[in-house]
């Protein structure tokens, strides 16, 4: 065979190989990805807003990938504090119904090398001015942080989130309203990268979960761990639940308001049976007609929350009885996450011409 044809053949093979790699890289690898910041104990509002939608999708046959975003959490928390919550939040998620047989759970810092490398490489594709315009950062700088004291990780927060999602080549990311702007940054970075260096990132989709606005039981604002008196924690015992609900604000007879709507969301979201939900509906109907039934409503609400927490807490106790269990779940998760991340990063390096 003449040498020239042989050379051409080789070139064709190489091109085909590259093409195959790119087609493979363009495919989604993870159906559903979500990250949780381990910064405190969960409240029932966290469960209803963030965990319940994932469990519902899992029940429909989707295999979610859940990761603990400990690197994101150190943006505004000491690593030693964050560390305390990692195992706790994993135990919570499993006890709430994320099933390690169906889902995968991994720790972000188990692939810290890949995450931080991709963060740096993606950061080249966005300007400082653009990052300063991200609404979540703007709000934060207006309300609680100052550029003089906020650390630079805050600026990179959405870029690192993009790295999480793109390393996994995730298809859908369920997020609440507060994370929509970050998802836009992810999509923007993926498009810019693809355009500049070659199509290797499939564009992730936002799966907007309906935002549940659950207010603090007392006082202003949303239910949050920063106002513990107005929040029901998954760790609360029956007595604490009863006294918190007793002190909760409701509404005058015949009146509906956001406080009462929040309590109804909690009651219906945590109820185990349809008949409990019917009971709640009947009481609220009576309330709307002007009957004095708030005391009765609180009794039912208390019973529903106590039953939910009792079941959760006993499952959780079972899960944490063997300390190596959670570790093994995280190890399994890390294996697959690492494999995917290494593969993606190799593609990134190849098209960017970084390294050998
Ligand atoms: N920013 C998310 C939050 O505060 C957590 C997070 C980090 C995340 N990386 C992610 C969520 C990737 C989804 C996908 O809740």
Fold blueprint:
Blueprint: H1 3-25, E1 30-36, H2 44-59, E2 64-68, H3 70-73, H4 79-96, E3 104-107, H5 112-123, H6 128-132, H7 135-143, H8 152-168, E4 170-175, H9 180-197, E5 205-208, H10 238-246, H11 258-270, H12 274-288, H13 294-321, H14 323-352
Parallel strand pairs: 1-2, 1-4, 2-3, 4-5
Helix pairs in contact: 4-13, 5-8, 5-14, 8-9, 10-13, 11-13, 12-13
The structure holds tryptophan.
Description of the structure:
The mean pLDDT is 94. With 356 residues, the chain is an alpha/beta fold. It has helices at residues 3-25, 44-59, 70-73, 79-96, 112-123, 128-132, 135-143, 152-168, 180-197, 238-246, 258-270, 274-288, 294-321, 323-352, and strands spanning 30-36, 64-68, 104-107, 170-175, 205-208. The protein folds into two domains: 6-213 and 322-352, Rossmann fold; 236-318, no CATH class. The chain has a five-stranded parallel β-sheet, sandwiched between helices. It is elongated, with a radius of gyration of 24 Å. The structure holds tryptophan (TRP). Tryptophan is lined by residues 33-35, 37, 69, 72, 161, 164-165, 173, 175, 179, 182.
């Amino acid at each position: 065979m003449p040498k020239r044809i042989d050379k051409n053949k080789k070139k064709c093979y190489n091109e085909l190989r590259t093409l195959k790699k790119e087609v493979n890289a363009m495919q989604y690898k993870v159906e559903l990805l979500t990250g949780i910041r381990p910064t405190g104990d969960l409240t029932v509002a966290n469960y209803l807003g963030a965990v319940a939608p994932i469990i519902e999708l899992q029940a429909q046959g989707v295999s979610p990938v859940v990761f603990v975003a400990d690197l994101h959490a150190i943006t505004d928390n000491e690593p030693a504090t964050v560390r305390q919550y990692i195992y706790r939040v994993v135990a919570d998620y499993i006890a709430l119904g994320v099933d390690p047989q169906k889902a995968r759970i991994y720790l972000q810092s188990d692939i810290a090398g890949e995450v931080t490398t991709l963060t740096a490489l993606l950061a080249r594709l966005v300007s400082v001015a653009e990052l300063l315009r991200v609404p979540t950062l703007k709000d934060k700088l207006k309300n609680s942080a100052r550029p003089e004291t906020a650390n630079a990780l805050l600026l990179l927060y959405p870029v690192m989130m993009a790295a999480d999602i793109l390393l996994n080549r995730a298809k859908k990311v369920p997020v609440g309203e507060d994370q929509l702007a970050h998802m836009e940054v992810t999509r923007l970075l993926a498009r810019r990268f693809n355009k500049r260096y070659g199509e290797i990132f499939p564009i992730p989709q936002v799966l907007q979960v309906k935002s549940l606005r659950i207010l603090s039981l007392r006082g202003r604002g949303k239910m949050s761990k920063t106002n513990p008196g107005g929040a029901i924690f998954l760790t609360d015992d029956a007595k604490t639940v009863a006294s918190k609900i007793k002190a909760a604000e409701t509404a005058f007879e015949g009146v509906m308001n956001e406080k009462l709507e929040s309590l109804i969301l909690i009651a219906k979201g945590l109820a185990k049976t349809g008949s409990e939900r019917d009971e709640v509906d009947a009481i609220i109907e009576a309330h709307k007609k002007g009957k004095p039934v708030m005391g009765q409503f609180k009794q039912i609400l208390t019973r529903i929350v106590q039953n939910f927490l009792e079941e959760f807490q006993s499952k959780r106790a079972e899960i944490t009885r063997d300390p190596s269990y959670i570790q093994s779940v995280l190890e399994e998760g890390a294996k697959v996450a690492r494999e995917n991340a290494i593969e993606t990063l190799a593609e990134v390096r190849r098209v960017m011409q970084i390294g050998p």
